[in-house]
Records
---
Amino acid sequence: PVRTRVCAELLTQPKRPKVINVVAPIGYGKTVLMVQLYAHLREAGHDAHWIGLDERDVNVDRVLAALLDGLAAERSVVDPTQALMRGDEPIERRIDVVVNVLSTLPGEVTVFIDNLNSCTDETLGQMLNALVFRTPATVNFIWSSTSEIPFNAARAKLEGIVRQIGFGELSLDARETGDLLGVDLGRDLGSAGVNAVQLRTEGWPAAVRMAQIVLSASERPLAALDAFSGSDEDISALLNRQVLVRFSPELRDFLMCLSLLRTFGVAMCRYVMGTDDARDRLDFLLKRNAFVVPLDRNRKRYRLHSLFREYLAGEAALQLSSARRKQVLVRASEWCEQAAEWHDAIAYALAADELTTAARLMERSAHVFVRENGDIQQFVAWVDLLRSTRTPIGWESQYWYVWALVFQRRFESSLQNHRLLVEQFASRAPGEVFPPELGQRIQHLRICIDYFADRLDDAQHGVDAWRIEHPAGSAYGVGSIGCILSLCQAFYFQFEQAWKTMRAAQPVLLGIDGADMVGWISLIHAVIMTYEGDYQHALDELSSGLAEARQRLGENAVLCGTMALVGAHCATEMGETEQARELLAFGMRTARNTSTLDLLACGFDAALQLWSGRDDELVSIARLRDVAAAYPPRLALMLSCQLIQRLLRLDRTPDALAEAERIGLLASCDEGAEGSRSEELAVPRARDLWWATAIDL
């Protein structure tokens, strides 16, 4: 690649700013510049990490996952119930994870993030601000985008930690244009011709590169140069047409077929296009700089430059028959299926309008998208699409679709779809083949839905029925059912039964191969003690259990956060304010995904007891309300009661009365009844809190 002015400057300056912000339209060499800087740092022994985003990385979840992957963070594969109990990491927590990982890396570190414009999530700015302003000075960032990057650039400028690079600095001057055109073409064109290319392209590197392809293939480069107009649009259209015209019909067909693929390699091209000379063709395109971009150091995977691919896809729609396009997409789907690249396999099948094939692929890979921390949102969208076309989907897809809805906390929808699954299973045809133990799994799933949706009575009834019908169920089924039942019994103050249930479940849980089982045993023991009022023993149990869980599961496990929230409640009840603050700060990072609202209510109680009446970094009423809104309504009601009690103790009676009026507590006091809140107050903990608050008022 050509070493441009800005590249030379960045390579030679003694100290780079914390952030190099490269923003320019497509084709201005942003990635080329970053690759040169990355290569320079790597050769110098610097710790550099490359994160490349594409059109699939539309939300911050995927960007954070890419960052963690790029930083070599380990990812676990867990059973869906375990994953839900630990919860999908909230955005704030995932940001904290990346910040913590970066902050613990030794020495100078530079993180490259290419194509940030792929992410359209409104929380992208929150993530970038955290990366910039919450990491040490030893952590630097170089990122690129085709559109304005939503981070606090004004603050970064005031602090002198950002360098902004736009299309003006990336545009090629005459010397750089000549370097890109090459010695032979530069000699044929002469200095005047090179200057003409630079002027007519206005230094747009993509246009200069396309000019290189066109003019190099022309017997009279100067005459071909006369066809250029002055605008980027005209140059782009002319050069794109000329690129295909100068290639053989076979190569044009090859390129147009490539445009239908997101990424590709030699073996994939051989299979998809049915050609044995795929390597020669790719090598030819690479040598001619025909916008084929290697994706790895070993050059086994490639993609087309997005601008070039966009043009070629349009040409393919015009010049390739629909049968040919479909053939390419179908074979691409087959190739990806063989390679277990499920996302692309399904996407190609859908693009080929092979809905039955897409449904079959989803049946094979549903657990990958839902259980193994895959793209739940995409999986749900695919199922909805197939359903809208009345394409039959398999048992596994339906089962994991319900789990996906649970992960998204769409409890009413999950219950509706579970009922449909039960009805379909009950009316299955005689002799129909279905996955092993599907009936048991469906019944277990309903118990989990009821539990997480705060339908605790239904969950307990479901447990009773499950135990009768499946006395020899799977170890995980027996263990998880025991955990759910024991917690429900504790929430209903049935302490003797709760202890008995846990004593029966504990040996089964200890026999399950999972690092979090010991943590769950410790947590449930402590919850029962807490509800019994034995705060000292509960805190001791949690302290030892949390220490082991943090060591075995890591600081970022949601289970650890849940244990910390319950521990914070115990510490506040015992007057251990500093310990409570430390535990609360740790636990609130995962509060959105604690999954059991009664345990989160313990953390809320601690937060309100520590609240001074003014929001601060540790306790914010608005943040607590925001977290509660993601759970069934009982949690928000309990939070309001806790807030009223705290406001009264802070001598803010008007504010307490206003909150009581908002939730209907004053009317209940007048009537001596629970009114419209009777369903939410069916659980004794919520009922007692409601009337204790009424007594305080």
Note: The chain has a mean pLDDT of 86.
---
Amino acid sequence: MKKINKPYSKNRPVSVRQTRNTSSLRNRTDSPSGHQTKRPAPVQKKTTVNRAWLFRLIAVLLPVAGLALIEIMLRLTGYGDNLDLFREYEQDNRFLTMNEAVSKRYFASDDEATVGFDDIFKKGKAAGTKRIFVLGESTTVGFPYTNNGSFDRWLRYRLMHSYPDTDFEIINLALTAVNSYTVYDFAREIVRYEPDAVLIYAGHNEYYGALGIGSTTRMGSSVHLVRLQITLRRLRLIQLVYNTLRRSGKDRLVADARQDPGMMIRMAGDYYISYGTKKYAKGVRQFETNMDDVCRILSRKNIPVFISNLVSNERDMKPFISDTTDNENNASRQFEQAEEAYYSGDYKKAKELYIKAKDLDMLRFRAPEVFNAIIKEMCSRYPGIYLVDAKSLFEQHSPSGIIGKETITEHIHPNLFGYALLSQAFFNVLQQQGFLPLDQAAMTFGQLMEQMPLSRFDSLKGAYTVELLLRNWPFNLTGKGEVQVENSLEGKLAYAVANGDMHWYNALAELSQQYEERSDWQEALKMAELSVLEFPYNESTYLYAARTSQSAGDKAKAAFYYTRAFRLKPDATTAQNAMALQMQLDRPELALPFADYLVEINPDNEDNLTRQQVINEMIAYKTALKADTANIMILNLISTMYLQMQNKEMALKYIAKALDADPASRESRKILDQIQQLPE
């Protein structure tokens, strides 16, 4: 009998193929037609997996939703601070200004958060306006002069008078005791506000400024982690955590504060950062990373950036802390050798040693020289990033090219002349790169020095502020007795402001009142012009400056300020004053727009129509005179027209030209006789 193999015998191994076939058979069933069909695959396992992932997702989202709900509740109840860079200007909602709370992003203690300028700018940039943002630290704020002396105020005054037909919005966003973290943070945000240029002066606070690697507010050495924490601080929930820690006594800044209440001592956490160490290198990397990203962001947005290299007192500021264990790297020893070289006349060697001593100083209140190399390299790497070589300009105005007390007040902050130089450095590059036209009529540096509205009050305020600073750590250079205050109104007010007993605005108002009562119109005009710089969108400050200019006998400035006031707020009285002054200055072409305006608002007024006609005729006569400067008939006509306006000065000017051309002219002599009868 033939033996039959059983495919499913338990004693016979089953092949893989057989297994597949078996599995396939198990999943089949007979259809009514007799054909086999597939059974539906089981879904229970897949459903279980999906549910597991859903539960995991919910587990993750629930805490996030809870935190988001807490954040919303905190905002609705008004807890914490809005830390946006800008806020709406309270006095006029058409404008934005720097949010005074924004610095709380960087300082662990609200009490230490510094406040900058409150420069305003329009929400929507007007056509023809050039908007310039200024970023930096205490030097950019203008310490120790602040409102009056900062380089952007010098620049604003110069641009306003050099290019009167262009409106410049210069918004200073600098803060005291910050560093490149703030510069980077602000740079990311200002791109949304249509900047035409960004000016930067920063670097001296890199180690001890807020969140710096050597500061009491440091949060670690990872630049990107610190940036994340800055961003998170804008959340009200994070603010709640910080406030809770502060109340529990865990605020590092307050805990580390020493006897001196000054900002420097409170911010400096590590006094011993030796040249070339890991911590030193981290500070360099921090500066380079932040500033490189600033340049990259702004360059990609095609926003011109003007970055100045850094200046500091090389010759007249000894190193603060030296490494006494290493003679070669002892900053004080290097400084002594620099002094020897300087007084022996070897200025090149002296400069090298002074800079080396500064770099070896373990207390890093002055930027190391490598920062200037970093700035220079970035300016060559990115398009639209321009180097402002302020250092070379300072060296040109320093004995033997070594920067000292001639331009610097203490270790890093310029004096008033130094701030003027810093503004000149920026002005030069703005012109060279085509941001400003090369106008021959632009105010020169010499004219700026003569006309910038700074007074003895400003000089004294700066001097007293510096003296109070130098009495404390780490300088300890002056005595501890009473500050010798000048026995004058300027001296008393300057010391009150420097000592924190009076606000700058109040001092300015009191000085203005006293100068007017004394009829000291030159000093009163300085106060008026300072008000214009402080409140560039307030037409009343321009009107006050115009009236004060008239009292001081400066018709040109009076006409300028009436014109600026009219541009902000057209008005018949302002137009009449501006027109009259322009005619007194022999500028009928500048008077015509005001004459046209007066006719436009009152076309039936015969005086307005006559005035408009006379001005148009005079413009035509002056145009004809350019082709024939000795035309006696035209000269006589212009002189007669000024005679009719009772403008003796201009009438004499043209009749003198006519008599120069023909001394025997009877008509000219007759006009001269009539002019001489006019009162002075």
Note: DSSP finds 28 helices and ten strands in the chain.
---
Amino acid sequence: PAVVRAVHRALKDYDGSVLVFLPGRAEIERVAAQLHSVQSEAVFVAPLFGAMDMRDQAKAVAPPAPGQRKIVLATSIAQTSITIDGVRVVIDTGLSREPVFEPAHAITRLETVRVSQATADQRAGRAGRTEPGIAIRLWHEGQTRSLRPHDVPEILRTDLSRFYLDALAWGARNPSDLPLLDAPPPGALAEARKRLQTLGLCDEKLGLTTQGASVRAIALPVALAASVSCAQTREDATLRALVGLCVTDIAPRSREIDLDAILRDLLGARSGHHRNDGHLIAQAKRIATNLDLPGKAQIKVLAASAGPALLDAYPDRVAKRRGAEPGTFLMANGRAAQLAEDHPLASEAFLVVADLTGRAAAPRITAAAAITEAQIRERLGHIITEVSAINEKPDGGGLEGFEETRLGALILSRRPLTINPGPALTAALGDNVRRKGIGVLPFTDEHRRLISRMQWLHVNADAETWPDMSDETLAAEAEAWLAPYLVGKTTLKALTGQELTSALLMRVGASRTHEIDRLAPSSIPLPTGRNARLSYDASDQPPKLSVRVQELFGLKTHPAINNGKTPIVVEVLSPAQRPIQTTLDLAGFWSGSWADVRRDMRGRYPRHEWPQDPANATPTARAKTRK
């Protein structure tokens, strides 16, 4: 509504054509619909965004006819690369839609963000290209100072697979060593390396494979180009290239989610709104012709299907419908995805997802194709695994075992497994811990405290000597450190407390177990003779001792662990067990703020000792004897 009001004002108050900056196609179409009433022989509305047909783009860019005014509704495409004649008024929403790469899921999503100050200035300048103009910003002037100064460089927010592939071809096996203006993010580089290896484009030593070299010559995103490189004939390559072009060129500007439907429209199997995209077929044929393959670059319309081609591009995005309800899917990479329940694809058992949008736990699928389990097994058999799984029955009545066929996080099939003691069961129990986490083990509080002490040594003493005892690492390596104690067991609950203790200590070796008590003791002796427990709550902080102040009397030096290198945190408690001081310098406390504490506490707790010189007083765990 604010944009529409600003356009009406511009048409009334100023001369010349109007250029409106909007974040994306959806906003452009909504504004265009609301401006329908202003269109006439003297004024026409012209959308302009990158996925439009070139002829429609040309209409938006061309000078208006004499006596005519134009309202151009544009994305950032009109910001730098295109000059639109006749524009004297710019209306800027201050928003743009930018690609943001999520390395954890290898997905690029579009996010609507505030523009930078530099972009806002650049947009305003479009009003003054040929004559003085007016720029109208739809935000408060004071907000301009809060905008980031410049756009985030693309290398910091995009998929780096193509960049990594080029770097390997140049001989740079560690692209982060290249003298770039902005260093590429380590997470995005790691995901790019993983994807190139998964697609077979480079080997474990980061040497470019023959397939990787061929992919560089295919003008498609790396994953889709890798699919084309898997073709055995030019006919197959033509179809795969066309599928890739549908994903990159048609799907982003189409309301259709089903890539097979888009493909049928494009090939003329039924009438559709892709009749102007015939040049993509010729482009697909050129891609196939340039490959050293037998046959002709042609397409059999009746056999055209996007699913098999996408399997080779996005094996991690194979999605299986969850339960009987349509529209909810789980992908092989472990991420959920959703479709509208009434969409034809929502009831399919399996999909290959080409694109998603949204940041929530279950993003929305915007491009996909149906696939069968038989096609998945045929094309991705090399990454499908057989796993034995042992689970507790839902009713708690014991164990049930399964042999599962998996593709990443997806269970393709499950068969009952007879539970008998032996190597298979031992491995399955260990795998159960790895998958579900160490919470399934019958740990006691004493085990948890031992783990905390060992993890503290890993972080603070010597990471090479003391192994990582984090929950994630213990779960990931469970099959190694638990295996000797799982022999003969049919359930994890059968592990005894002593067996779990021995298993944990085995990670450091028998020769070093006594060092745990010496360097990171579970308790320390107090002047009263009592042993007080230490709390290792955070591995990056010293342990804490919480004790009543009367039990610390006579202690002149601050207690420490780790060969005296690490002073512990002493939480000094009142007789009512309430904290009155936290210190890393007990001697300093005695000689400093103790006087104030004593003055306050002796009135509250007169039955307890409050000496003037606690460093030389007699410790006690009791109150004064009643007279």
Note: The CA atoms of residues 401 and 487 lie 17 Å apart.
---
Amino acid sequence: MREEVEPPALRAHDADDADDADDAGAAPALRCGSILFPGADDVPARWQEAREPPDCFHDLNLGRVVEAITAGRQEYDLAPIFHAPLGSLDAVAYRQEAMRDMEHRALRQAVAAFAERMRAMRRLLAAAKESAYELARQRWHLAAVEVYTEAVERLAHDLGGAGLAARGLRGFRDALADRARSAAFRTLKDEARSLAAALQAIRYCMLIRDGSITVCRYRGESDHGAAVAETFRKFQQGAVKDYLYKFEDRPSMNHVEAEVLERVALLEPDAFAALARFYGQHADFVDPAIVRFDREIQFYAAYLDYVDRFRGAGLPFCYPQVSDRHRQVGARDTFDLALADKLVRENGTVVCNDFTLRGPERIFVVTGPNQGGKTTFARTFGQLHHLASLGCPVPGLEARLFLYDRLLTHFEREEDIVNLRGKLEDDLVRIHRILDQATPNSILILNEIFSSTTLADALLLGREVLRRIVRLDALCVCVTFLEELAARSEETTVSMVSAVDPCDPALRTFKIERRAADGLAHALSIAEKHRVTYRWLRERLRT
């Protein structure tokens, strides 16, 4: 009976466990920066504070968007990257460069292949860490080194021919090429392959008799199984059942297998001594910069894979022009990502909208019938600016957006019995907090504020809030049932109206149009439809 000494099956492993080994034999760390941030030591202070999503995420449905983007990639812990907007135009441009490079299908496929090899390496290291037997740990470790060196070599080759333009990717490519050519890396690769080949060549026999197993060298004994199969082959008629025993691939050994392996090691002391030396010398073989790249590149791959869903449905995406000075923002054929994701999966129709602010204009006041797309428009405005602040392409044919310092939202909430405040008081407290935090570089999105009070009070409070925002010179979207707010004479305010079908006012088009609020005309069209206008009532009374 012959057996080959090979690692058993794989199991999932945490990405961080690659760094848990000793430093013996480790090559100098790869010298390159992050592909997410420009500069060498570029992780911002608030990076660690981004574990929880910003307050605006719930109101803007950005939590659902990030959950959809990162689905299937939980091992990389990408959500904090999507939580933290960038603070400079250079950082935004740095990411846009990498996104554009990653649009190329060949590069994305190379990254996917690299990620799969790194995932296999982590599974092997997990098996080594979990094994109770020293020889098994050493062999799993050797297999992990083989996979790792192949991943690095293959990625260096693929990046070398990719024609990269992004600063971050070019820097990593050059550093990785140097590493793949280095003497330390070649030694690691050659030793691992040579040792694996030596172990693979080992053959041994097991004599099983009366509950005992004797392990001895293989000396060319015949394979009796093959001889028996050949003898009875002439009696075979058509397909027959295979009765060969299938050994299970497991991530661990039982005690019998471990004892057998110990005796094989006694038969081949040189090969297993070399394995032990290799394990000690290269305990920490994974470069932290390569591990970081493996995680960071998934930010780009995950987002672009998500975007492909929409492009496949004919919806446009673009790289926005982003400014930290000019507030003349706008977008063409844009849409709410969270809503569009649901509609695309259900084969529904996604309605796109345009908007623009010119010159001194700063505030959109959005009015119109309920369920007409007003809140969706407000969410779209916030989503676009957050995604642009991450360096991501955004929904739309084109977009000009503002790099904000804070994105502050106020959406209607149910009364909270814990704080013992009524709805109006709660609205006032929240609005006051938002205005205290806001700066001229902030974006405010207010949805149906002061809807719980009288018309006169809501109008008084709404005007005061908008007056303070105008003084701040901040950008704002205000969705309201108060058409008087849209009729403000200030040149800073733009009226947007959710449109209805002119032939059937009960039908919403979900288009948001830049025009004066005309709720009276809308009411008149509904009255006309139901024949309750003055003209129709006179006609009916006469009849």
Note: The mean pLDDT is 87.
